[in-house]
Amino acid sequence: MSLSFDPDRLTLPLGHVIDGTLVPAAGALAMHRPSDGAGYAACPVADAEMVDRAVQSGRRAQAAGWGGAVPRDRTRALHRWADLIEADAPHLAQLEALSSTRPVAQLGPGDIAVTAEQIRFFAEMADKEGGDLAPTRDASLGMTVTEPYGVVGAITPWNFPISMAGWKLGPALAAGNAVVLKPSEMTPFSTIRLALLAVQAGIPAGLVNVVLGDGPVTGNAITGHPDIAKVSFTGSTGAGQAIMANVARTGMKPMTLELGGKSPQIVFADADLDLAAEAIARSIIFNAGQACVAGSRVIADRRIIDALAQKLAARLVPTGVGPTWDGASAYSPIISERQLQRIDGIVSDAVAQGAQVLAGGRRLDRAGWFYAPTLLTDLPPDSPALLQEIFGPVLTLQGFDDEDQAMALSDHPTYGLCAGIFTRDLSRAMRAMRRVRAGTVWINRYGRSRDHILPTGGYGQSGIGKDLGREAYRASRQQKTVLIDI
Questions:
Q1: Is 389 a catalytic residue?
Q2: FRET partner for 326 with CA separation of 20 to 30 A, picked from 61, 164, 250, 470?
Q3: Which of 43, 117, 292, 389 is catalytic?
């Protein structure tokens, strides 16, 4: 069965989802397909009044009993939702592939299956995570109990639309909250469909509300709304800072922020170079490097740096270049012409500063916004290619002489999201893991697994709090301390 589809014949669910129904709205923001640059629709922008309508819908639905329901009832509803997500995978894949950078063939077994897994993972926490008894004097009973916040405001990015929605919706709903979620204005369709499937699964209408729009209008209305009790955001560090400022202007509320990264991949001389080269190349080719966890800085022992560079250059060849709606496509386009020009500008400036291009370094000559996987070396230490999050398929390569220098090069003045370490020496791996400044460290691999129990989040300007794992569920409930004299 072919996965390919005609993008011009796909019916798009374009509008807000409030109180369980699709609310049509006039388009305001032009939308273009990354695969061919064609304009095809306009995204509505929810104003403060529309956001308030969604928030009040969430408040009513949550207060009607979801937060205080038998936890196992929430679990069953979420499992039904996950079943519908899997059954609807062909349709969801088309909605996601049309506007995003994700090839349709990768979505069913990848992003959509992962989203269903995440929903099921958090569903099983609803009746397994609660309060604790505390040691107190015999004449007292001390305990902590947890309660849902009420309405959680969530904002997701364009690079992995459906799985990022799963990150936000799964823990918040399992913990008894309602959600008002804003997907990216560039990639909203699969998230809209998710919300409608939730109602079909028996999750009460109003618990999952989706409002479309941009950050300055819709995003600010969500994060600054007085009845939004918690904010969860994945996106750039700059946007995260803007959200914190907006929340501070309107009050205080807890936040989970998963932000940008400029992650190092450290390759020691004793590493398996084929394994390292394969993992590094895969990490930057996947979604054309458009991931906050992209391991874009390769830091290698000088004794093996030339051999590693050759192996990387041989692997940084785009295959399966084509539109995301073609089932044979495997390499992602860049999300917009503006972002493609930014990537190319950073690479061109690096070359002008004396950097050597060992692979790529150019826009691909075809329709759409495609950029070749790129490897740069001989960069000055102040090069923007080394310091800025490029969010594209660009690797930089630096050399080190000893472990201390490797650790010094790995440290970034701003980011601390992820890091990779390649070595056969367990002691060296553990020393480096302790010294590297990152919220997630992978050893002899690079990239997340489908072990949803493992939390993710960064150090420094790469974020606050954790997504996934028990931590994400616990962060969706507030804690109350109780002391009873007997």
A1: no
A2: 164
A3: 292
Mean pLDDT value of segment 249-263: 95
Average pLDDT over residues 98-123: 97
Mean pLDDT, all residues of the chain: 97
Yes or no: say if 232 and 267 are a contact pair by the CB < 8 Å rule: no
- 43 assigned to active site: no
The answer to whether 133 and 463 are in contact (CB under 8 A) is: no
Q: Which residues pair with 233 in a beta bridge?
A: 155, 257
3-state helix, strand and coil shares in percent for the chain, rounded to the nearest 5: 40, 20, 40
Q: How far apart are CA 305 and CA 88, in angstroms?
A: 47
Calculate ∠ Cα 63-68-74, nearest 5°: 105
This model's pTM is above 0.70? yes
Tokens of 170: 């799964």
Average of per-residue pLDDT across 218-246? 97
Residue keyed to tokens 């989203």: 115
In this predicted structure, what is the pLDDT of residue 296? Answer: 98
Tokens of 251: 């009050």
Domain ranges of the chain: 7-259, 264-460
120 with 79: CB under 8 angstroms?
Answer: yes
Q: Which CATH superfamily is domain 7-259 in?
A: Aldehyde Dehydrogenase; Chain A, domain 1 (3.40.605.10)
Distance, in Å, from the CA atom of 89 to the CA atom of 108, rounded to the nearest integer, reads: 6
| 385-440 pLDDT per residue, tens | 999 999 999 999 999 999 999 999 999 999 999 999 999 999 999 999 999 999 99
Kindly name the residue from 96, 258, 389, 471 that is annotated as catalytic. 258
Superfamily of domain 264-460: Aldehyde Dehydrogenase; Chain A, domain 2 (3.40.309.10)
What the block records as the tokens of 351 is 């070359």
Please write the tens of the pLDDT for every residue from 182-191. Answer: 999 999 999 9
Q: How far apart are CA 222 and CA 273, in angstroms?
A: 47
Give yes or no for a contact between 212 and 191, defined as CB atoms under 8 angstroms apart: no
Asked if the model's pLDDT at residue 278 lies above 70, the reply is yes
CA atoms within 13 A on the CB side of 213: 24
Return the residue matching tokens 């996987």: 373
450, with CB counted inside 10 A (0-12, 13-18, 19+), is exposed
Strand partners, 101: none
**Torsion angle, CA of 240/124/97/207, rounded to 10 degrees?**
-70
**CA distances for 171 relative to 127, 248, 314, angstroms:** 12, 25, 41
